[in-house]
Amino acid sequence: MISLEDLEGLEEEEQDSNITDNPEPMGEDDSDRLLSHWQAVASTHQVSVPTEMMGPIQEMTRNNQQREPVPFVAISCQEKMGEVMYEERVYPAGKWACVTRGEELYEQSISMSFMKLMRFICKENSAGRHLGMTVPVVSTIHMMEDGKTFAKDVLTGFYLPAEFQNDPPQPSDSDIVIMHRDPVRVLSRTFFGTTTEETVTRQIELLWEMVGLSEDVMSDYYMVAVYENPSVSRRRNEIWFIRRNP
After folding, report:
1. Model's pTM, two decimal places?
2. Nearest residue to 95 (alpha-carbon basis) of 186, 154, 183, 226
3. 110 and 15: one domain?
4. Rounded Cα gap, residues 114 and 120, in angstroms
């Protein structure tokens, strides 16, 4: 889970954007440039993209516009001078494919988890087929006792498309676990750009300023929802606070 905002100086940015927007089959040169592009982006978060990721990257690029939203019910919307400050929603119970990583950096953990999930989505599963993409991909952050530092282990989850909810395909990778997750009631605020520990911490602080202290809202863990793939320069994200009673 990485962003092109880290590559504003990359000379081939415009060309790479053209590649990621093109649904047609790619030639060898385009494929090489696309892989190089992902590797360059990943390097800014101290993550490497192996060459065997080329297949999933191409598959995700071709299917970039076909994304199924994770279902939810809107509860309320808080606005100020016509601007949406945050929304309250309920997400129903469902099955998610999840990976837990505990790398040195938060952004390393979510990046490496997402690469595993990409391979699962792109045919490395018992169905032997591309499963289709759902959005958002959601990462769960637990806080240390100081309430400010992220715990190392981060769980990143991909909501299974509707057609697989009752009969989930099994992953080839033993690090991926199919989990049933209970309903969750969230306070959601949108932000754009990178999702590093620094930017996410700032978003947590901003939302607390808006919500105010409340015993009904969890303060020991949060969720980060990401809506676009790593090729999008101004990626849409959300920070989620969790209500104790869904």
Report:
1. 0.83
2. 183
3. no
4. 10
Q: 103 with 223, same domain?
A: yes
Residues 155 and 214 in one domain: yes
Q: How far is CA 156 from CA 94, 100, 210, in A?
A: 15, 6, 26
Spell out the alpha helix ranges (H) of 80-219.
106-121, 197-211
Q: What is the pLDDT along the chain (246 residues), one digit of tens a residue?
A: 333 333 333 333 333 333 344 444 555 667 777 767 666 666 666 777 777 787 777 777 776 667 899 999 999 999 988 899 999 999 999 999 999 999 999 999 999 999 999 999 998 999 999 999 999 999 999 999 998 899 999 999 999 999 999 999 999 999 999 999 999 999 999 999 888 999 999 999 999 999 998 889 999 999 999 998 766 667 899 999 999 976
Question: What's the CA gap between 136 and 225, in Å, rounded?
Answer: 5
Residue type, 48: S
Same domain, 106 and 75: yes
Which helix (H) or strand (E) covers residue 238, if one does? strand 236-242
Q: How many CB atoms lie within 10 A of CB 106?
A: 25
CA distances from 174 to 31, 34, 97, 133, 180 (A): 28, 28, 11, 20, 17
Q: Is the bond into 25 cis (omega within 30 degrees of 0)?
A: no
Residue 18, Cα to own-chain centre: how many angstroms?
22
Cα(68)–Cα(188) distance, rounded to whole angstroms? Answer: 19
